[in-house]
Design a protein that fits this description.
mainly beta, single chain, two-stranded antiparallel ribbon, about 70 residues
Length: about 70
């Protein structure tokens, strides 16, 4: 069995999120401690990380380590 996985975000179902829609890869992989979200931002967007607000925009990547609080 292969240990790698390739995901085509065009094949991942989009789900609503506060700033648009998100496609979430690897959420079903039990031994991968993360997911990768590709979000189509359709409104002004901010992410709150441990109480700090940061603007987000298309093309920006945010890595959130385990245990960090986000909203």
């Amino acid at each position: 069995m292969s240990r790698h996985q390739i995901v085509d975000f065009n094949q991942v179902a989009a789900v609503p999120c506060p700033c648009g829609v998100a496609r979430r890869a690897f959420s079903e992989v039990a031994d991968f401690p993360a997911t990768v979200h590709l979000t189509e931002i359709s409104a002004d967007a901010w992410i709150e990380l441990d109480g700090d607000l940061a603007p987000v925009r298309p093309g920006l990547c945010v890595q959130i380590p385990p245990g960090e609080w986000f909203d």
